[in-house]
UniProtKB/TrEMBL annotation, chain A:
Domain Aminomethyltransferase C-terminal: residue ranges: 899-984
Domain (FAD/NAD(P)-binding) ranges: 170-422
Protein name: Sarcosine oxidase subunit alpha
Residue intervals of the SoxA A3 domain: 511-593
Phylogenetic placement of the source organism: Bacteria, Pseudomonadati, Pseudomonadota, Alphaproteobacteria, Rhodobacterales
Any GO BP annotation: tetrahydrofolate metabolic process
Taxonomic source organism: Gemmobacter lanyuensis
Keywords per UniProt: Oxidoreductase
Keyword field contains Oxidoreductase: yes
GO molecular function, a single term: sarcosine oxidase activity
Family: Belongs to the GcvT family.
Residue ranges constituting the GCVT N-terminal domain according to the UniProt record: 608-878
Pfam families per record: Fer2_4 (PF13510), GCV_T (PF01571), GCV_T_C (PF08669), Pyr_redox_2 (PF07992), SO_alpha_A3 (PF17806)
UniProtKB/TrEMBL annotation, chain B:
Domain of life: Bacteria
GO MF term (any one): sarcosine oxidase activity
Pfam families to which the protein is assigned, alphabetical: SoxD
InterPro entries listed in its UniProt record: SoxD (IPR006279), SoxD_sf (IPR038561)
Official protein name in the record: Sarcosine oxidase subunit delta
Biological process annotations from GO: tetrahydrofolate metabolic process
Length: 992, 107
C-alpha cells in the first residue's frame, strides 16, 4: 500500500492539516502536498480509468507530465475537469472526483472494452464506422459520445475572474531549477532585465531532490541563497506558479500564472495570463523521464522512478512498501537509495544493461540492495494494484526466471529534454544516440527578427543531465563565465531500451502501454506501421498516440522509437511530431481574461443612446453599435411596434437616430478625381450644395458599399457610408491613396462620431422643422438632393434633403456634443405633429417598400450593381474606376445571372427569410437546381401584405411570371415576379 | 506575433497594432488590360516558404501603410519601408541577397 512516512517531506508542513474529498471520501493531507501526494498518503493509488479500454489508472508521475491522474476539481461555478493531481496544490476543503468511469471508479462497465481490446485496434474508428452510412448518425456517434471524452463540461458560469497583463524583458528564463536560477543570476549581474518563471510553487527543480551538492553544500542552500539574491535585484522579476505555455514569433511568450488555484475564492483573480515580449528566451525547462515498455506497465503502482523519489523526499509519502526498480540508466538507482534510506523495501533493482560500472549501482549494492544486471520485467501482475513482477532476461523473449511480490514498480527509461518552447517557434532537434534522446540543435535555433537565436537552452533542456554540466551550460547560455561547482557521482551511459524484453512476443507487446491516456500500446504502433503508416504525424492521428491533455509527454519518444524499429529506419529519420502550444492546458477563462459579458467587445453608443434605453427601446447590434430596432409601447409586440412606427412615419412624422451612418470627409485638389475612381458614377462634377447617391465596388466589380455624397465646397466632399462600412471604407480610401495614387493631393477624415445625425421623415417633417425655425427648409430653397447649413431651434445644423424611406425627409447633422439636446428639441416640438421615433426595422421595411437595396441584404460580395438594376449609377464615360475592369468580365454579362426583382405571394402572405426558388433537375452533387432566392422580405404595414425582393435568373424580363419558392416545412408556395418598387414609384412623396 | 517597425512613426509595432495587406508590389491592371494580366493582378499570389514582400498597415497607430520584407519560414525581417514605391529599396535587396544567396528576386 502507499502511505505517509513517519518523517521526511521537505515541502509539507505536518502541523497544518488539510481536509479534502475524493469521490465523496473525506481524506486528510498536509499543507504543501500536491493532491497526488495526499491521495497516495491515503492509499488512493487508483484515480481514474483509461480513455478507450477503461483500464484502472494510477498516478504515474509527479508533475506536468502526468497522463493518468486527472480529476474533476471543485463544484458549481468552480468545477473544472481534467486537472492534474500532480500539479494541484492541496488546500483545505478541496473537492475532487475521478473521471471517465461509469458507474463507479472501482466498478466500471466500460472495462468490457478491455476484454474486447483485440477488436479495438489502432484506427478502430476509421475502420469500423464507415458502413452503413446512416448508422454513424443514429448508432455509432451517440454511443461514442457517451463513452469517449475526458471529464465533463462545466455547466455553470465560471465564478472566478481572470486577468491579463503585459511584460517586457531582455531575457525570459523559463524554469526555476538550478539551471534557470544560475542563468538568471548570471544575466542579472550583467545588467539585463530578467523575467524568471517557474511552473510549480517551488524552486530548485530536481537538484534539491536528488542530493546534489553545490559549492560544497546541499543544493537547497545554494537555491535559497540565489533566489534571495535575485529577489533583491531591481532588474529581476520572479514569478512562481507561472507556466510558460507557448513561445511565438519574435519573442512573444504566453505564461499562465496560477494566482489563486490553491486559495479559491480569496478575491484574487484565479489566473493571470502574462503576455511577455522577450528579447531572448532561455529555456531551462529540464527533462522528463520516460517509461519503459514492458507488459502491464500501466497497472496502478507502476510509476516513474523520479516521481517515486519525489513523493518520498518532497512529501514524505511512500508509493509502496515494496518497490521494484527497473531501469536502463544510473539515475533510477537514486530512487532505490532514497527508498532504502526511508526505511522501505527494495526487493530488487532490474537493470537492462549487462555491465554496471557507475558509482550509484555500486552504492546500491553496498547498501545491500539486490541488483540484477541484464534483466528486465516480463510482466507486471495485478489488477487495480501491482501485486508482483515476473523477471526475465532483457535479451530474451520473456521466459520468466523468477516472480517477486511487490506493490510498486519504479521505472526509468531515461530522460528526454523538455524541448517544447524551443520547438514551438521552429527550433530543430538532434538525436543523441549516446543519451538516447532528442536535444535542441544549437546550430538550428528558432530565429528572432534580426536572424539571431531567439531561444537558447540551459541545463537539462540542452541535454545535460548531470548537475555540474547543468550549471556550466546555464552559465554559458547567457554568455557568462565561472559556474559554481557541483559534486555528482559518476554515471555510466544509458542503454536505449524500447521494448522489454527485447524479443517480446505479441502477447506481451499487446500489454505494453506507450500512451496511458489514450490506450496506445506497442502493438498498435507496430500495426500502424504494417498497415503502411510511415509518417510519424499520420501514425499519431491514426493511433491517437500523444494526443489529448498530456500531448504525449511520456509517450512520444517511446512511440516513435517503436515506429522507427517497425519501419527498420533510424529514429532521427522518423522524427518527432510537431510541438504546439500550450505546454500544458491553459483554461479558456485565462485566455478570455476580462473580455466576457458586458465588456466582451467595445460598445459604440450614439449621443442619444441613453434616451433610447430610457424609452425601453429594443436594441440590436449593428457592428459594434447598438441601435434601436423598435420602441415597443406597453402591451405591444415588437412586430406591432414596428408597424405602428412605419404607419406613423408615412402619415405624420417619424424620427430616426441615424448617427451611426458613416461620414468621411474627402478633401484636396485631387479629391474629385479620387472620388471618380472610387465611385462607379461621376462625383467630380457634383455641384456645391448638391447630393448624389453613389456606389463603390471592389476591384472585382462587386458592390461593396453605397451612400449619398455631398459636395461641401470646391475642394471638399462628404461621403456617407453604411453604418457597418465606415471604418472599412475609410481604410479602403487610405489604401488607394497611400499605396497606389500617393502623388494625388487628397486628405480623408472619418468624422462618423463627430456628428449626431437624425432623419426627420414624413409628410409633416417640414412643418416640424419650420416650428423649430431658423432656416428656410422650403422646397424652393432646399429641394430634394440638396443640403444647406443653417440654424434650427437655435442649433447649428447641416440639413440634407435625402430620403431612404420615400417620404419627405431631412437628415440633420449637429455636432455630437449637441446631439442629445437637439433630439430632445425635435421630440418636444414634434408632439403636436404626432412624432414618433422609429427603429432600424421600420427603416428596413420603408426602404424595401421603395425598392431601395441594402448592402448585405441584396449584396453578398458576388453581386455587381448591374445585377441590381443600378446601371444608371454607373458612368459609361469614365475611362476607369475601381471595379470597371472586373465588371468587363464576360460571365458578368451573362443573361443567366440572377438579377433583382420584386416578389409577391399570390395570397399576400410573407415569403420566408432565406427562401429559394427551385428549378427543374439536379446538379452534379445531386442537389436540387435553383433559379433564385429572396434577399429581403417583410410584411408591409403600408400595403397590408407581404413584399419581398430577390435575385432571380433573368431578372425583370420575367415580370408577371409565377414561380415556386421554398418554405421551411419543405413545401413550396407560388410567388409572382414583380417590380421591386412597391410604393410611390414616381417618387412624388419624397420630392415635395 | 510579429513585430514590425513602422517606417513612418518608428514604433516597433506588435502584430495586434497592424492589419495585413497581403502581397506587396502588385501592379494594378485596369480597363483595357488582357484577361491574363487582370487574372494575375486579381488572383495570382505568391506563397513562398522564404523571402516575401508584404503590405502592412499600422492601423492602430499612425494609420500608414508600409511594406515589409521578411522570411516566412524563419520570421526574420529584412526591413520595412514606406509604401510609396514600386520596388524595394536597394539596401534591403542587398541585405536579402547577402543572407539568402539563392534568392531569386521579388518579382
Amino acid at each position: 500500500m502507499s502511505s505517509r512516512l513517519a518523517k521526511g517531506g521537505r515541502l509539507i508542513d505536518r502541523t497544518t492539516a488539510c481536509e479534502f474529498s475524493f469521490n465523496g471520501k473525506r481524506l486528510k493531507g498536509y499543507k504543501g502536498d500536491t493532491l497526488a501526494a495526499a491521495l497516495l498518503a491515503n492509499d488512493q493509488m487508483l484515480v481514474g480509468r483509461s480513455f478507450k479500454y477503461h483500464r484502472p489508472r494510477g498516478i504515474v508521475g509527479s508533475g506536468a507530465e502526468e497522463p493518468n491522474a486527472l480529476v474533476n476539481m471543485g463544484t458549481g461555478g468552480r468545477f473544472e475537469p481534467n486537472q492534474r493531481t500532480t500539479t494541484t496544490e492541496l488546500f483545505d476543503g478541496l473537492t475532487s472526483t475521478s473521471q471517465n468511469h461509469w458507474p463507479s471508479l472501482e466498478f466500471d462497465i466500460g472495462v468490457v472494452n478491455n476484454y474486447a481490446a483485440r477488436f479495438l485496434p489502432a484506427g478502430f474508428y476509421y475502420k469500423t464506422f464507415i458502413h452503413p452510412r446512416f448508422a454513424w448518425k443514429h448508432v455509432f456517434e451517440p454511443i461514442v459520445r457517451q463513452s469517449a471524452g475526458l471529464g465533463q463540461v462545466p455547466k455553470e458560469r465560471d465564478a472566478d475572474r481572470y486577468e491579463q497583463a503585459y511584460a517586457f524583458c531582455d531575457l525570459l528564463i523559463v524554469g526555476g531549477g538550478i539551471a534557470g536560477l544560475q542563468a538568471a543570476l548570471t544575466a542579472a549581474k550583467a545588467g539585463k532585465r530578467i523575467w524568471l518563471v517557474e511552473q510549480t510553487a517551488h524552486w530548485g527543480g530536481r537538484a534539491v531532490v536528488d542530493g546534489v551538492e553545490i559549492e560544497g553544500q546541499p543544493a537547497e542552500v545554494w537555491v535559497n541563497a540565489t533566489l534571495a539574491a535575485l529577489s533583491k535585484m531591481e532588474n529581476v522579476t520572479i514569478r512562481n506558479r507561472c507556466m510558460a505555455a507557448g513561445s511565438y514569433d519574435h519573442g512573444y511568450v504566453l505564461a499562465d500564472e496560477k494566482v489563486a488555484d490553491h486559495t479559491p475564492g480569496d478575491g484574487r483573480p484565479r489566473h493571470r495570463l502574462w503576455r511577455i515580449r522577450a528579447g531572448q528566451i532561455v529555456t531551462a525547462t529540464g527533462a522528463i523521464e520516460r517509461p519503459l515498455s514492458f507488459a502491464g506497465n500501466d497497472i496502478p503502482g507502476v510509476m516513474l522512478a523520479g516521481a517515486v523519489r519525489d513523493y518520498v523526499i518532497n512529501f514524505g509519502v511512500a508509493p509502496g512498501d515494496r518497490t521494484v526498480v527497473v531501469t536502463n540508466n544510473d539515475d533510477a538507482y537514486r530512487t532505490a537509495i532514497a527508498l532504502k534510506e526511508a526505511g522501505l523495501e527494495v526487493p530488487v533493482i532490474l537493470d537492462a544493461r549487462a555491465n554496471l560500472t557507475g558509482e550509484l549501482p555500486a552504492k546500491a549494492r553496498a547498501m545491500g540492495i539486490r541488483v540484477e544486471a541484464g534483466k528486465g520485467i516480463a510482466k507486471v501482475k495485478g489488477g487495480k494494484r501491482v501485486t508482483s513482477v515476473a523477471i526475465c532476461a532483457q535479451a530474451g523473449q520473456g521466459a520468466v526466471l523468477e516472480e517477486i511480490s511487490c506493490d510498486a514498480v519504479a521505472m526509468s527509461g531515461g530522460w528526454s529534454p523538455v524541448v517544447h518552447l524551443w520547438s514551438h517557434c521552429g527550433g530543430k532537434l538532434n538525436w543523441d544516440t549516446a543519451k538516447a534522446h532528442f536535444a535542441p540543435d544549437p546550430a538550428r535555433p528558432p530565429l528572432n527578427h534580426d536572424g539571431s537565436a531567439l531561444v537558447v537552452t540551459a541545463g537539462s533542456a540542452s541535454g545535460h543531465l548531470l548537475a555540474d554540466e547543468v550549471l556550466a551550460d546555464a552559465t554559458r547560455a547567457v554568455g557568462g563565465e565561472g559556474a559554481p561547482s557541483a559534486k555528482v557521482p559518476h554515471e555510466a551511459p544509458i542503454e536505449a531500451v524500447w521494448v522489454m524484453p527485447q524479443g517480446a512476443p505479441v502477447e506481451l507487446r499487446a500489454k505494453m502501454w506507450l500512451d496511458y491516456q489514450n490506450d496506445v500500446k506497442v502493438s498498435d504502433v507496430q500495426l500502424a506501421a504494417r498497415e503502411g503508416y510511415t509518417s510519424v504525424e499520420h501514425t499519431k492521428r491514426y493511433t491517437t498516440l500523444g494526443m489529448a491533455t498530456d500531448q504525449g509527454k511520456l509517450s512520444n519518444i517511446n512511440g516513435l522509437a517503436i515506429l522507427a524499429d517497425s519501419l527498420s529506419t533510424a529514429i532521427p529519420q522518423v522524427g518527432t511530431t510537431t510541438f504546439r502550444p500550450p505546454y500544458t492546458p491553459v483554461t479558456i477563462g485565462a485566455l478570455a481574461g476580462e473580455a466576457r459579458g458586458e465588456i466582451f467587445q467595445p460598445l459604440r453608443r450614439t449621443p442619444v443612446y441613453d434616451w433610447h434605453m430610457a424609452q425601453n427601446a429594443y436594441m440590436e447590434p449593428v457592428g459594434l453599435w447598438r441601435r434601436p430596432y423598435c420602441y415597443p409601447r406597453a402591451g405591444e409586440t415588437h412586430e406591432q411596434a414596428v408597424h405602428r412606427e412605419v404607419l406613423n412615419t408615412r402619415t405624420n412624422v417619424g424620427l430616426l437616430d441615424a448617427s451611426t451612418l458613416g461620414k468621411i470627409i474627402v478633401k484636396g485638389p485631387d479629391a474629385g478625381k479620387f472620388l471618380d475612381m472610387l465611385y462607379t458614377n461621376v462625383m467630380s462634377n457634383l455641384g456645391i450644395g448638391k447630393c448624389r447617391y453613389g456606389l463603390m465596388c471592389n476591384e472585382q466589380g462587386f458592390l461593396s458599399d453605397d451612400g449619398v455624397v455631398a459636395r461641401i465646397d470646391e475642394d471638399t466632399w462628404l461621403c456617407h457610408t453604411t453604418s457597418g462600412g465606415a471604418d472599412r471604407i475609410h481604410a479602403w480610401m487610405e489604401d488607394w491613396l497611400q499605396c497606389e495614387w500617393w502623388d494625388w493631393q487628397v486628405y480623408t477624415a472619418n468624422v462618423t462620431e463627430q456628428y449626431a445625425q437624425f432623419a426627420v421623415v414624413g409628410p409633416k417633417a417640414r412643418k416640424l422643422l419650420e416650428k423649430l425655425g431658423g432656416m428656410d427648409v422650403s422646397k424652393e430653397t432646399l429641394p430634394f438632393m440638396q443640403w444647406a447649413d443653417g440654424v434650427l431651434g437655435g442649433f447649428r445644423v447641416r440639413a440634407y434633403r435625402i430620403s431612404f424611406s420615400g417620404e419627405l425627409s431631412y437628415e440633420i447633422a449637429v455636432p455630437a456634443s449637441e446631439g442629445r439636446a437637439f433630439w430632445d428639441a425635435l421630440v418636444a416640438a414634434g408632439a403636436e405633429f404626432g412624432l414618433m421615433p422609429y427603429g432600424t426595422e421600420g427603416l428596413h421595411i420603408m426602404r424595401a417598400e421603395k425598392g431601395f437595396i441594402m448592402i448585405g441584404d441584396e449584396t453578398d460580395g458576388t453581386v455587381i450593381p448591374q445585377d441590381l438594376n443600378l446601371g444608371w449609377a454607373i458612368s459609361k464615360k469614365k475611362a476607369d474606376y475601381l471595379g470597371k475592369r472586373g465588371q468587363e468580365r464576360p460571365y458578368l454579362a451573362s443573361p443567366d445571372r440572377w438579377k433583382l426583382v420584386g416578389l409577391e405571394t399570390l395570397d399576400g402572405s410573407v415569403i420566408q427569410d432565406g427562401a429559394y426558388a427551385p428549378a427543374p433537375g439536379f446538379n452534379a452533387n445531386g442537389q436540387r437546381n435553383t433559379q433564385g432566392r429572396v434577399t429581403s422580405t417583410y410584411y408591409s404595414p403600408t400595403l397590408k401584405r407581404g413584399i419581398a425582393m430577390g435575385l432571380v435568373k433573368g431578372g425583370l424580363s420575367r415580370i408577371g411570371e409565377v414561380i415556386e419558392m421554398t418554405k421551411l416545412d419543405g413545401s413550396t408556395q407560388q410567388v409572382r415576379i414583380c417590380d421591386p418598387v412597391f410604393y410611390d414609384k414616381e417618387g412624388e412623396k419624397q420630392n415635395v | 506575433m510579429l513585430i514590425l517597425e513602422c517606417p513612418y512613426c518608428g514604433v516597433k509595432a506588435e502584430e495586434t497594432e497592424l492589419t495585413p495587406g497581403y502581397e506587396a508590389h502588385l501592379k494594378r491592371f485596369g480597363p483595357g488590360s488582357s484577361d491574363e494580366d487582370f487574372e494575375n493582378y486579381m488572383f495570382a499570389r505568391k506563397n513562398p516558404k522564404g523571402v516575401h514582400f508584404e503590405r502592412w498597415r499600422h492601423a492602430y497607430g499612425c494609420g500608414k501603410w508600409f511594406l515589409a520584407a521578411r522570411c516566412t519560414a524563419t520570421l526574420e525581417v529584412f526591413g520595412t519601408y514606406p509604401a510609396q514605391t514600386s520596388e524595394p529599396p536597394a539596401e534591403i535587396v542587398a541585405k536579402i541577397k547577402a543572407k539568402r544567396p539563392d534568392w531569386k528576386g521579388y518579382k
